[in-house]
Hints:
The protein is of the alpha+beta class and about 575 residues long. About 55% of the residues lie in helices and about 10% in strands. It contains 20 helices and nine strands. Strands 3, 4, 5, 6, 7, 8 and 9 form a seven-stranded mixed β-sheet that branches. A two-stranded antiparallel sheet has the order 1-2. α8 runs antiparallel to α9 (about 145-155) and α12 packs across α18 (about 500-525). It is globular and about 85 Å long.
Amino acid sequence: MQAHQTLADIQHLLTEVLQAPSQWQALAPFADTDGGLAAQVLEEAAKFVDSAIAPLQRTGDEEGCHFEAGSVTTPSGFRAAYQAFWQAGWPSLACAPEDGGQGLPAVLEGVLFEWLAGANHGWTMAPGLLHGAYECLRHHGSDALKAQYLPKIARGEWLATMCLTEAHAGSDLGLARTRGVPQADGSVRVSGSKIFISGGEHDLTDNIVHLVLARLPDAPAGPKGLSLFLVPKRLPGGERNAVVCERIEEKMGLHGSPTCVMRFDDANGWLLGEPHKGLAAMFVMMNAARLHVGLQGLGLLEAAWQKASAYALERRQMRAPRPMGTTASPGPDPIAEHPAMRRILQTQRAWIDGGRVLAYHTALQLDVARHHPDATERAVAQRWCALVTPVLKAALTDQAFHGASACLQVLGGHGYVREWGMEQIVRDARVAMIYEGTNEIQAIDLLVRKVLADGGQGLCALLASLRADVPFDEAGNTRRNALADTTRALAAAATTDPELPYWVADDYLRAVALVLLEWAWARIRAASQGPRWTDPAQAFTTWVLPEFDLRLAIIRQRLSTAAADVHPRTAPAMATAA
Length: 578
């Protein structure tokens, strides 16, 4: 992906569609951030991504990472690029000035990481958890731990991992067995094994800060017995901690990112937050990561679209059909003029543009929730982030994979061979539907934990706010009313059939995503003119939005089946990674 190709579009969405500068200036930490400053930051970020990161995309995939005797060597150029990245200050964009950060709005960091993922997803896995680790340590670390580790994590001088998963415990973190034994000096000795640890070992930085879920000796069983520990690769004196990388995985994609099996052999660590409340502390990190995973989806889909669009303009095949009354070309025409290809390209463009508005608005709301002087405004922003973040993670990563596959189709056989780079995007995109909580977990999190927890009141209030924000046509209002009615029906039915929401959670999330995208496109239409925006807007209405009726029909059919079933059901245990 070439970041500079997206600059004008993103500037338009931020300044004209979302009115971001006026929102920033209403928040004290960003009072001096205007459109000009944001444009300058994004211009320089695009230059860095295009010159330093994008050229390593194929290198990372073909060379992969090398494992030998517990050490990992990343592909050629990766270490130098990372050193340039952190020394230029890019990891610290949205970190607080008192921690060594630049104190800029979260959405600018979000755009940067969208570009990085689209340019080189494997390389971007390394700094991908920095923002979450920073927030986790900032909120839950002791003063001593923050003094020792926070500035280096904020600057990106040291990288971080999130060590949750064990071989027998995937989404059910309550099954974790890793142990932490308190010591007389206030430290903890951590023992156990973790799998699927992105960047668990590498040569990019001199130290790696592992955030590890484990159990204290007096911990109760299940997820409520987990605590969170900071376990560095190197201890404060510089000596190597008892943290061992046993191997790296051979994967479908992301060959430039080492996915490690990590073993902790009485490793020295320190408690983060309160005992037995590690999940609450870890979710600060995971929730930050989930928005960025949604942005990864956008970056990957943009990368696929750029390749497919460029190819379609150059490749000439047959004569494209023309509307009645127009003159036929002598042919052959660029395949970009054939309706089948236009449909693919415009549909993906509709997802990218609408998805950007949703993701950028969510990043803006994160800052409102943290910094707005009015408590009511903070609460409304927090409600938006809580409800929309799982939708973004699931819907945008799903579309990244399936949309990239559709873009590969534009290239035909050329898309399937390595030379053109499309098959790498498809392979790399697939994992985003799995990590940071599978997309099924996201759907359950949305419907069971968040929507039904208050009988659907919060979701219905969010739907009402969409209508108040921008005018919709009659069909749009009908869809929002239908979703609100279905939400209330699910809340009522779940009281007698607790299993029901788990059957339809995926369909419900997709329905919510489509209504949110309709709002996003209403915002775009209100502020944009010309075929650049009208063509994908039409594609959204024609090819994307009709899925809403399908999803609601599935939910309603299940509701009818549940109503006819006189035998109450027991809800399955809630996956603890939600």
